[in-house]
Amino acid sequence: MFSKISYDCRACSFQTNNKTLYQRHIETNKHKKKNKECGIVIDCECGSNFKHMSSYYRHRKICPANKHPHQNTLYDTSKTTSKETLKETLKETLKDDLIETIFKMNQITLDKVVEQNDKNLDKFIKLQETQMENQIETFKEAQKNIKELAIKCGNNTTTTNVQLNNHIINSQKTIQFLNQNLPDMIDMETFIYNYKGDYKLNEDETKTLLESYQLNGVKGYAKCLSFFLKDNCNRQLKDKNIEYPKKISFPLTLTDSNLRSVKIKTENGWDTTTDDQVLSRIIIISNDQVYLHHKTCIYLPETAKNTIITQIKKDNPFQKIKSSFEYIKD
Fold first, then answer.
1. Residue 122 domain-assigned?
2. Distance CA 154, CA 271 (A)
3. What CA dihedral angle connects 235, 311, 206 and 300, to 10 degrees?
4. What is the DSSP letter of 73?
5. Is 3 exposed, middle or buried (0-12, 13-18, 19+ CB in 10 A)?
6. Separation between Cα atoms, residue 169 and residue 172, nearest integer Å
7. Among 10, 154, 167, 218, whose Cα sits 20 to 30 Å from the Cα of 77?
8. Beta strands across the sheet bearing 252-254
């Protein structure tokens, strides 16, 4: 009969002859905690505890737990088992140390974050106070400016009304002058109707218009079209036995130096308008006629159309009409 092996855990003062009970013991938290406090990191199956790997391996060579109960040879799997047990033990120990280290690092980081947040909060509060003070100063300054502006407006109201009334009076005088001196000017809608029909641009005119665009760009196109419109209107008037100075033969005239307001001939006489729609229609009709004769499309973006409209307005100023009739009277 073989003597029973005694399993002794010195750290916990635990002894047993039952290997299963001993293995169950070394898995308990109490055992692990005691071993850690005593500096023991390695447990042998026989119950011995070691602080160093070298001591553990020397013990394994003579350990009774490493012998087979019926043979005096080592188990084939003893080395593998002891290594695995050692790995697990080391893992647990390192895990506990790592957790404690991480906890300390996190606590330090948390303290720094709290401290930084306190500083940021103080800065934010000071910034808000500064902004509030600036807004109050701005509000006071705005109130002061409003009071000063109210005083000035009170003094300038009369002047503004006078200027507005003068503008209205001058506009009415201009319309009256046009109705008196150009009463038979063809109205714009009739001109456009004829321009699309019997008085459309011929092949030579559209060729010249196309070449002006190709050679000189939008500005060349604008000047050429403006000339053709006046010539076309003059032919329409001539066929109705109406004669006006050739340079002013067009049912539109510019009366605003800012190029906004123009006077246009309607069925009911001359009137004021700020709408450029009629001139946009004329540009589209002209391009259609170019395509009809030469199968070439002239693409004009909005900026180009505005340039052409401005040129047509500038070529038909009211001052030129007024000077022409004053010359005739003289």
1. no
2. 34
3. -140
4. S
5. exposed
6. 5
7. 10
8. 252-254, 262-266, 269-273
Output the six-digit token pair for 95.
């895990």
What is the mean pLDDT of the segment spanning 206-225? 94
For residue 149, is pLDDT > 50?
A: yes
If you count them, how many residues does the chain have?
A: 330
Cα–Cα distance measured from residue 209 to residue 311, given in angstroms and rounded to the nearest whole number: 15
- Reported as a single tens digit per residue, the pLDDT across 30-73 is 777 777 666 666 777 776 777 666 677 778 777 876 654 433 33
Q: Rounded distance, CA 252 to CA 246, Å?
A: 14
Distance (Å, rounded) from C-alpha 81 to C-alpha 83? 5
Domain count for the chain: 2
Answer whether residue 80 shows pLDDT above 80. Answer: no
CB of 233 closer than 8 Å to CB of 252: no
Residue 45: what are its φ and ψ, rounded to 5°?
A: -65, -20
Residue 172 lies in a domain: no
